[in-house]
Specification:
14 helices; 34% helix; alpha/beta; 7-stranded mixed β-sheet; 2 domains; Rossmann fold; globular
Amino acid sequence: MAVVAVTRERRAGETRVATTPDAVKKLLVLGVSVVIESGAGLTASVPDADYQAVGATIAPDLASTLSGADILLKVRGPSDEEIAALKPGAIVVALLNPHLERPVLEALAAHGADAYAMEFVPRTSRAQVMDALSSQANLAGYRAVIEGAQAYGRAMPMMMTAAGAIAPAKVFVMGAGVAGLQAIATARRLGGVVTATDVRPAAKEQVESLGAKFIAVEDEEFKAAETAAGYAKPMSAEYQLKQAALVTEHIKKQDIVITTALIPGRAAPRLVTEAQVLSMKPGSVLVDLAVEQGGNVAGARPDEVVVLGGAKIVGISNLAGRIPADASSLYARNLAAFVGLLIDKSGAVAPDVNDDILQASLVTHGGAITHPALQAA
């Protein structure tokens, strides 16, 4: 019987945990045993007793948690102490941030661990239940609006009172992926007047279905700006200038701007320039979801509120971690489904080397970093 371990997150500011009682039940059905370090779930409102009640074993410290572990489940990449405590050949599954945290991968490879990065799970129908990026981005998009509304200092919806009317906040969402669409839906629920933009023509219908107005230069080039696989094509310099001019005029009138553009393995694209920030009204707010990868907004800094002109730039590096209970619940389900690919019917560790999901997400094996994208880097 394989042993699946979950340790306390040691990364500063990380409030999520890699499994929850509901997910433990799913793991036990696979025929494995589950060992959890004492206190691992406290920041996500899960006491040790809740894990014990569903059949997990609580270990008092890190060493005893990992001493017999075949699989280690984490939110973030393991610390040096955790890697050193792993037995040879153990499997690690986590959000490893492989492009930006290569030293963790090198340490895992040197230790002989097989590591799987949840960021590399392919976005296919079969892998949908394991798509941790989407589950966490959904919550990040929601939380971005909450943080923006808090920093804004005024009401979001229109209000009619005997003393007069309050105008609704104007919210502009840049990027209509998973996080952006959830931000649009949340801002609409809070009563904001919402507009959004994206480089993909197909996003227009999605944006409008949520009750927001789509902002883009919709010329012939834009209409053809998507590949058969659904990815955006590079746009001409002429189109980029026209789109930038449109955004510049639009952003001046906004109260809250939320930027969500990320490119795996590359610095976040700059969507909002310093001049555009300075053109915004006093008291306006920008929330940058890409701040960990350099930021979409000029001047954004991780885990700081930067004041530029009269506008506040809010950079929170772990927005999903601001909702630890729900973020942990969704991520734990992603992981439980993934572990199902690593275990055979007898409950033993037996990953199928030909499985497309495992092949796509394996980053270290046999003492080396093996993922093609990381080797090229």
